Every structure is written in structure tokens, then in C-alpha cells.
Amino acid sequence: MSEDATTETPRNSPGLVPAGTVIASRYRLVSPLGQGGMAQVFEAVDETLGRRVAVKVLHPHLAGDETFVRRFRQEAIAAARLTHPGIVGVYDTCSDGNYEAIVMELLDARTLREVLDERGTLDSESVRRIGLRLLDALETAHNSGLVHRDIKPSNILLCTDGRVKIADFGIAKADDHTELTSVGSVVGTASYLSPEQLEGDVVDGRSDLYALGLVIYECLAGRLPFSGNTGAAVALARLHTDPVDPRRFRSEVPPSLATTVMRALQRDPDDRFADAAEFRAALLETPVPAPTPAVAALGPEPSQEVAAEHDGFGRSERRWLVPALGILMVGAALVVAGALLRQNTDNRVTPPSTLPPTPTQTGFAGATAFDPAGLGEPGENDSLAPAAIDGDHSTAWRTEQYETPDFFPGKDGVGLVLPLTSTSLLDQLTIDSSPNGWSGDIHLLADGAEPDPSAPPAATLTDVRGRLEVPLGGARADAVFIWITNLGDGDGAHGVEIFEVAVEGTALG
């Protein structure tokens, strides 16, 4: 069993919180889903809002320990500060008598650990897409001053709807908070710790990038780059030797992808990617072949034979299937919270009965100008809108010309609505436009939503000049809505030209 393996929750273990308990007069615990060294996780019902949630309850014998309670609450505070589709959401915290609890979103998902244990490896395209979405989430966390410090396959959730999420910010370090661990102590799961974590040095976001590099390496090669008979031997190898190129263990790994991963695994943090955005940009520019029906056999490592099958799991991020609810967690001293899976009645996770099909790249199905305050015919230069997605950079959709960059009184903007070929998970939007410093918002429309400039945007654009790449983090959408709010520079006439809009992501239907 790997060190990220999970354990089942005993149904009647002494000292554990019983199912049926109501916490804070609101959250009724329905059934236990898993436990770790600090806490249990339950499927629960929020009886105020009538929704299913996950509730993580600190073990009763630890609830009186101030240090444990502080760490437990720190997890909730750290995660609640982050709002991102790639991070498990925290709804509430409770302190109720003998119980300390965190209330989280309930997910139909599998951990990447389970998938790797079942399949062995993933195809390069799926690895790339998973990496892109994780890096987008890590960029948000790092920009908020938080370092996860325990990135590993069991903390990565592959949801049945195609989303990829990071769980367990329980040992995340906030730049503006004092750590609860002593100086020089090691926090995290040993197999995925960075060299600086092993040595007790200062840790920043580059440690998360190193750990993610190890995860990507394992997905590609079917094993980690370092091995040894003991944990200490593995740690020493990581401190004093360079990793082996993953192509040694799996020849079909694309050279460019191997190069990207090897840079993330440099021992000196200064030799790695500077931040998640740089790592993400490199991964996005790394060409990888489409997955094939048959994946080449995985070569064994010198001291261990890898026996798991690897028959193309990653051929669709929309079909990480599980038949019943339950994720089982464990992880050093902290619990992987929020990874909640479906289980069958004998508590064994049932693998998918069929392999998913090849991922389908999404695209735009059309383009329509959006001009709610316009005069005359609907839309603004609507007949030119298809030029924004025709693949020809010599053609363009353009706004009308205005005397001021702010349009005129009563008109706040104009835009383009770009429906997708089907509901999709979007990784990036690329816009090629006029270099006049225009500004606006990107909205992602889902579930039949109409364009609404007043809705919270997925991204805000400022001073756009020419080509712009907008990361979207795997967000789900049916259409993209570009809303221009300022026309930028102009010499008596202000306007914007959109030469081409392209999208990268995975179609779900």
C-alpha cells in the first residue's frame, strides 16, 4: 500500500463521533466516509439549507487540545480565503461543545491516487490538462499568500463532471501567520516533499511546484523518480541526486513534456519555474500527442515492478466515474478533507466498468455581437462577428467608432457572445485584438444564462494591447461573453477590433 493509501472508517470504533449526531443545531451527520489521524469526514445534511455537505469533525480526544484545535481551525480559515473552481470550497466552521467541525462541499470524485493505483499511468494529454488546472488553482493560492505544502495524488480530486480540485489546506502556511509547527520541522507527506522542506528551510510556492512536478512525473512514468529501501534513503536521494528522465521508464513521454517536468524538479528552487503562472505557461506551450487507444507497456523500475494497468484512463476528464459515495483519507498527521466518493455496500470502491473515450477539444459554434444599449438593428456590426472566430487574422469584428473611450451616456459597453460547440471545461482564452489599450470583462455563461454585464466576471481585462491569454482554470461554460467597457486610445475616434478569439478546453458532450 502506498503512503497515500486510504483507510476505511470503522463503523463503531470507540471514541469516534456517531452517525446521527447534529452539530451546531444544523448539520446532521448521515454516514462516515473516512478518517485520518486528526478527524473524521461525514456525509451530512445542512438542515437549514436542505443540502448535502461534507463535515470534517476533529476526533473528540483531540478537541480539548488547543494546538490541534488551532491547526484544525487554521485549515478552515486557509481554505475559506480561497475562491477558485480548482479548490475544495469551505462553507462554515463550527465549535459545538465537544465538537470542532469544518463544513465543505460534497464532491462526486476520485483521488488521483486511486486512479494511479488502478491504471498505473495516464496519457500525456490528460496529464497536461490536469496540471494546467492545478497550476491555475495554485496560482490563486500563492497570490493569496498561501503555500499548500502537501501536494500529492491523494490531495488531488478528479470530479465526475471533469473538474480537478485541490483538497486539504490543513498544513498550508500563510505568509502573514506564525506556523504551529516548530522551526525546522517537516510538514507534508515524505514522498512528495521538496528538498527545502526536507532540510527545514524557508518554503514558498516553488515547493508546491516541485511537489506537482513529482505528481506529474508519477502520472507519466508510473513511479516517482527516486527510490530506496527506507524513507531516509529516498530523502537523501532527493537531496543529493538529480531525477532520472521519465522517458527512461516510459519511452512515449513527449520530450518537451519531460523537459518541462524536469525543470520543476530542480533541487535549487531558483532553478525551477519562478511561479505557478510560469509553470502553467510552459505546460500550455508544450505540444503533446492526442491519446491513442493502446498505451505502451510500462517499464519496471530497477527495484520494483509496476503491475498496474494503464489502458488510457485520461481519455476524458468528464468520465472519472465512481458508482457510490465515499472517499477514504489519510495523510501524515492531517486528513484529506473534501474528497468524497461513491462507494458500494461492501465499502470497496468499484472501478469504472468501461474506459472513457478520447477527450474532445472544444471550440466556438458561432459569434454574435451584444449591444443592449445600441440604436437601430440589434447588435453592433453583427454581420462581422463571425470574423472573430474564422481562423483568419486578416479579418476582424470591430466596434463602431465613438468620440470618447467610455461610449456615451446610457451606453456602458458592447461585446461578443461566443457559444461553444457543447458544454465544456475551459483552460484558456486567447484574444488577438487591436493594440489600443482597451479594457473589459470575460464572462462564462452556463446552464442557459443570458449575457449579463453586471454579473461577476471570470476575468477582468485592463489596457489590452494586441494578443492576450486569459487562464480560466477548467471552469465549466456553455458560452464565452467578452464585454468591452473602455475603448482605449484613439485620435478623435475610439474603437476596438477583435481579430481572432480561440479557446482551449475539453468538451463534455
Which terms would index this structure?
509 residues, alpha+beta, Transferase(Phosphotransferase), domain 1, Jelly Rolls, eight-stranded antiparallel beta sheet, 8 helices, 19 strands, 18% helix
Notes on the structure:
- This protein is of the alpha+beta class and 509 residues long.
- It folds into two domains: 111-321, Transferase(Phosphotransferase), domain 1; 361-507, Galactose-binding domain-like (Jelly Rolls, Sandwich), CATH 2.60.120.
- Helix content is 18%, strand content 25%.
- It has helices spanning 66-80, 112-119, 124-143, 195-198, 205-221, 231-240, 255-264, 276-284; strands spanning 22-23, 27-35, 39-46, 51-58, 90-96, 99-104, 109-111, 146-147, 156-159, 164-166, 173-174, 360-361, 368-370, 397-398, 414-433, 438-445, 459-464, 467-486, 497-507.
- The strands form four sheets. Strands 12, 13, 14, 15, 16, 17, 18 and 19 form an eight-stranded antiparallel β-sheet that branches.
- The longest helix is centred in the N-terminal third of the chain and has 20 residues, at 124-143.
- It is globular.
- It starts with 21 loop residues before the first strand and ends with a strand.
